[in-house]
Amino acid sequence: MPDKKADTNPPQRTHQVELAIGQLDSLSILPCVAAQLFPRLLQGQFSPSASADIIESDPALTARILSLIGKQGVSKAGEKFSLRQGLDRLPAGLVRDALLSVKVLHEPWYDNNRKQLMLHSLTVACCAKDIAEITLPQMDSQLAYCAGLLHDIGKFALEETMPKSFVRIIEEAKSQNACSSDIEKKHLGIEHTLLGKHLAQKWCLPDAIALAIWLHHSDTVTIYQNMSEARITAVVQLADSIARQSGIGQSGSFDSPQQTEPIANVLGIDLEQLKPIRQGLTRQVEQKAKVLGLDMPNAMARYADAVHAIAAQLARDNTKLSGENRQLQTVSGHFDFITEFLLSINSAACAIDIAENFATRWQKFYQTGMVCLYLAPEANSKTLDAVVVQELGQSKTTLLNAPEDSTPIPKTIATSFAILDAHDYLNWLFEQLDVDFDVSRTKLVPLLSNGKAIGLIAFEVNWPFDVELFAENFRATSSIAGAILDIAVAGARQERFAERFAQLIFKPKVSPPAPALASQEAAGAAGRELGAKRQPNITTDYLLSALAELAAGAAHELNNPLSVISGRAQMLAEAETDKERKRIIDQIEKNAGQIAQIIEDLMSFAEPPKPKPAQADIKQILKEAVQLAGQKAKIENINTQIEVAEPDRNILVDSGQIVSALANIIINAVESYDDKPGPIKITANTTDTGLTRLAISDLGCGMDTETLQKATQPFFSAKTAGRKRGMGLAYAARLIQLNGGSLDIASKPGEGTTVTILLPRV
């Protein structure tokens, strides 16, 4: 019997019970269930669905997972209920943590009562699922199963929070052949159904399940007739009646089960349909009980073994995580080192200044002794640039003599990364430096760019045994520095080319050759016209070829290190979590992309495909050029007036290249109109000397003399800085020249521009 002291103040007792039940975050499981479940949680690649059969057979585990599904919001509105589907949508780590956190009942006297209650719940669950499947096709049988399994969670909760009182309640109900709810109400002032409802709401269980928990001992027939939402409740009540009649398990109630016929009638079920359900219950429940190990011998010992295995696994995982955490901290530190170095670089800095910056940061970050960084010498050069960082970060640059009997970069690291002992390779270096390196503890690594060492960094190590641990980090940081320095060296080389080119512009050293056509009588007037037209541009043509050679060299020099910069930036951006740093790295990648596009323009200008002249119709070429210009300028219809003299329309050119050149000229004509598009007139006729003359005219803003002189120079643009790269007319002139033609521009401010093109005919 429940203690008499509790009966003297039912309201206070009720409040105490509600408080105790309200503190439950989950129900406990039996040791046998834990012994079945825990080994599955130790699998390296834990899969929640691999434990679904145990979870959906145990009321405590089912309630725990349904609570997670509800709180995580992984169920989609309107879809059919599925515990397994919701389980698969939950993060595996979250499921494993939830299952490991479930308490286990250790006291032996819990064992029999809990097993009997679980068998009863399993019987109701299996019966409810079968009833739902044969009666109402629209009813969710999986939802009915879970509602049946959890209908008595209030009793499970009472058993855990006040086990002795619960046992006395069951004994009194048995002695009086009464329903346990009546005895609970008498001594506790509240029933397990209402307590179960409160738990269901707290744990965010589906509404239909909470309703079945609350009302499965009520007048379900009347409720269902007036509230269709209670259909699952009616199914659970019918299943509970059949389960009690079957004698499988013990619910704790000893009154006569409710009559099945009234509930079956309201659900539209023929009693004959229930016979096969009754007959199959024993087999179904036995299968579920086997999954849970309810008949397992020495369950406590098996559970203890499982706990020991989990503890050992957790210890190993903790050791592994500690190591990974240290590794992540190291990686994070190197990422900061690389990021700060990249952000500190001045675009105008020369290679040796960047080298000094990097060497100083290297010493500070790796806490080394003295550092020396030198760059590989230029071709045919006997000297090389170097920087020395003494202790306390004091640095200076110097010029070294390359060794006479060996290469400055050891062959071992000329094309691949390795950490070498300096005393085997750098005696020539230490002889020239005015600082004393401790050669015995000095290491060296290459500065690689695109598979080639462009320099080397030597440094004193204070902790020799840690060097190999940092090998991968040395590789990453030195490779990034190598790529940056390679770009800086290439930039300096191209700047020298540009200075030489500037000298050629103002003081051309090559005299223009006499036109070959002038001496050929057969060419006659045609040669004289083309020669006269091109004679003033011979110096320009020579300089254009020189510029093309310069552009090709620059593009080749910059492309490889730029690819490394872009690739490294992408890797850094993917690993970065700080928003501001990620934004800065994205800017680096974006600017690298813009430079790559400029290089692509250079390559197109410097090394266009060799023309493949063939007979072409000038009228068709003009039509395609206008269409291409419209696509590039994003204008559906360009206002063009085309006049082509008949019948001689055939020219001998590479039609694809000429279409591209003319499209660029037409786009310039379109852009000459500031406010709205104006007319563009295009004429084509044959000269007296047998050439085809094209004239493309606009009435736009025109150009002054200075702008006109620079119009066909690469990267010149009269537009606002940043809006255009200025390659249109330069590219057009280049292609026309390669096809044996010429281009001339006449223009005045405010009066428009005419571009005249001469092309060879068939």
Any overview of this molecule?
- This protein has 29 helices and 13 strands.
- Helix 14 (207-215) crosses helix 16 (231-246).
- Strand 1 (371-375) and strand 2 form a beta hairpin.
- It is elongated and about 125 Å long.
- The termini are far apart.
- It folds into four domains: 4-296, Orthogonal Bundle (Hypothetical protein af1432); 345-486, GAF domain (Beta-Lactamase, 2-Layer Sandwich), CATH 3.30.450; 508-603, Helix Hairpins (Orthogonal Bundle); 614-759, Histidine kinase-like ATPase, C-terminal domain (Heat Shock Protein 90, 2-Layer Sandwich), CATH 3.30.565.10.
- The protein is an alpha+beta fold and 762 residues long.
- Strands 3-2-1-6-5-4 form a six-stranded antiparallel β-sheet. A five-stranded mixed β-sheet has the order 8-10-11-13-12, sandwiched between helices. Strands 7-9 form a two-stranded antiparallel ribbon.
Present the secondary structure layout.
Elements: H1 4-7, H2 10-22, H3 31-41, H4 52-55, H5 59-72, H6 83-89, H7 92-100, H8 111-135, H9 141-150, H10 153-161, H11 163-175, H12 180-188, H13 192-202, H14 207-215, H15 220-226, H16 231-246, H17 260-267, H18 271-292, H19 299-344, H20 351-366, E1 371-375, E2 383-389, E3 395-401, E4 420-421, H21 427-432, E5 442-449, E6 452-460, H22 471-506, H23 524-534, H24 538-575, H25 579-606, E7 614-617, H26 618-633, E8 640-644, E9 650-653, H27 655-671, E10 680-686, E11 692-698, H28 705-710, H29 728-738, E12 742-748, E13 752-759
Parallel strand pairs: 8-10
Antiparallel strand pairs: 1-2, 1-6, 2-3, 4-5, 5-6, 7-9, 10-11, 11-13, 12-13
Helix pairs in contact: 3-19, 8-9, 8-16, 8-18, 9-14, 9-16, 10-11, 10-13, 11-12, 13-14, 14-16, 16-17, 19-20, 20-22, 22-24, 24-25, 26-27, 27-29
